[in-house]
Amino acid sequence: MYFSLVAGFSLHKVSLCCCDSVVSAVLCVTVVQGQDGWGVTYTSTKICAFKGSTVDIHCTYTYPPRINDQITAVKETYWFTKKRNKEPVDLRTDSDYTGRVQYHCAENSCTLTITDLRESDSAEYKFRFITNQDGGCFTGSPGVTVSVSDLQVRRRSSEQVELRCHSSCNVADHPSYVWYLNGQKMEEERFSLRVSVNDHNRYSCAVKGHEDHCSPPVYPPKLPSVSVSPSGQIVEGSSVNLTCSSDANPAANYTWYKENEDSPKASGQIFTITDCICVYVSCLLMSPPDPPKLPSVSVSPSGQIVEGSSVNLTCSSDANPAAKYTWYKTNGNLELQPLSKESLTFSSIQSSDSGDYHCTAENELGNNTSKSISIDVTCE
Ligand SMILES: *[C@@H]1O[C@H](CO)[C@@H](O)[C@H](O)[C@H]1NC(C)=O
Ligand SMILES: *[C@@H]1O[C@H](CO)[C@@H](O)[C@H](O)[C@H]1NC(C)=O
Ligand SMILES: *[C@@H]1O[C@H](CO)[C@@H](O)[C@H](O)[C@H]1NC(C)=O
Ligand SMILES: *[C@@H]1O[C@H](CO)[C@@H](O)[C@H](O)[C@H]1NC(C)=O
Ligand SMILES: *[C@@H]1O[C@H](CO)[C@@H](O)[C@H](O)[C@H]1NC(C)=O
């Protein structure tokens, strides 16, 4: 006996931002632009990164070696950002960044490293250097725009998975199933069981009459997770892999959706984003589609059917998406109007209800018809 997962469903929001490759070296507060030899060049001007990761912002800068016989010396370098109407300050003294910023500066270059990124770090970062020259202060503007996004897993409260009982050997034509919840026999006799993805109970199943061949206990499959590679900053023109993972048996079919779009963006476990696009994607885990298998019919209670008693006929079939059921009663070769969906319930069965019954299971991919069973109502 083994289990299969029918549909685990999960939405993961991933935002990736657009990147451009404009390099800038503009303007100083006090010194006239570039042509005099003043300038700041940033390696990239837009950087996208995920919450918790580390970002490196790099620049090189130039200045005239001497002005009016005075040799230029750099007195101070720092990075700053202007946020929430605060005056720009050296990031090392900004309490929002305490313990999270480092400068690695060499001659004419400087790298700002921000660790443990927060969404509130999304801002434009600029580099400034101050020299001994009169008014010799230069800011590289525009700066580098950093967008920090969060990788979210959203669960639908109604999210469910279907556990199905499979028998690897041939048993009776219409087997009844027995389910165990944490080792305790359950009332449920259908071949499948719907449970919440948040259900951490152990389930196992067996074919009735063959209870010694229980399936090994299982937990409902874990919600799939999405990982991003590379995990740090995403710069211009690079490709990004989103990988959806879940332990499913049989192997799951992964489909990627863009937020608010019904048609899939891609299928397969890895979704590669090669161009600069802004996307919100979700990852959907599904078992491959399957037309209905031969439906099995169960009669409850089993044994002799006595007039006036309550009887249920249940139809079940392995199908993905789940099958819809219809019951038929045949009188000789005459097929009567469909009777009911899924379960056919007689609260007080009559001898006129005797006859042959069958059901059909149908989904988008096809239909299948059960063997017919004979109901023989005896008088008390
Ligand atoms: C993305 O996945 C492809 C195929 O598995 C692999 O060749 C490539 O190196 C991956 N790229 C990154 C950035 O992980
Ligand atoms: C996964 O499912 C989609 C949609 O049903 C289908 O187009 C695709 O071919 C399937 N992929 C695999 C690997 O089964
Ligand atoms: C009905 O189910 C049987 C057994 O699962 C399968 O072999 C058969 O192809 C199915 N018939 C149709 C019409 O799908
Ligand atoms: C038949 O099904 C109904 C509704 O599902 C249930 O209340 C009733 O107990 C069942 N009766 C038998 C005999 O299984
Ligand atoms: C079942 O499938 C067959 C062949 O695909 C089709 O001709 C028939 O109309 C279907 N029956 C029902 C009840 O949908």
TrEMBL record:
Source organism per UniProt: Lates calcarifer (Barramundi)
Gene3D superfamilies named among the record's database cross-references: Immunoglobulins
Taxonomy, superkingdom: Eukaryota
InterPro entries: Ig-like_dom, Ig-like_dom_sf, Ig-like_fold, Ig_CD22, Ig_sub, Ig_sub2
Annotated signal peptide: 1-19
Function: Most highly expressed siglec (sialic acid-binding immunoglobulin-like lectin) on B-cells that plays a role in various aspects of B-cell biology including differentiation, antigen presentation, and trafficking to bone marrow. Binds to alpha 2,6-linked sialic acid residues of surface molecules such as CD22 itself, CD45 and IgM in a cis configuration. Can also bind to ligands on other cells as an adhesion molecule in a trans configuration.
Ig-like domain residues: 142-207, 224-260, 295-374
Keywords annotated in UniProt: Signal
Lineage: Eukaryota, Metazoa, Chordata, Craniata, Vertebrata
Protein's name in the database: B-cell receptor CD22
Signal is among the record's keywords: yes
Record-linked Pfam families: Ig_2, Ig_3, Ig_CD22
Subunit comment: Predominantly monomer of isoform CD22-beta. Also found as heterodimer of isoform CD22-beta and a shorter isoform. Interacts with PTPN6/SHP-1, LYN, SYK, PIK3R1/PIK3R2 and PLCG1 upon phosphorylation. Interacts with GRB2, INPP5D and SHC1 upon phosphorylation. May form a complex with INPP5D/SHIP, GRB2 and SHC1.
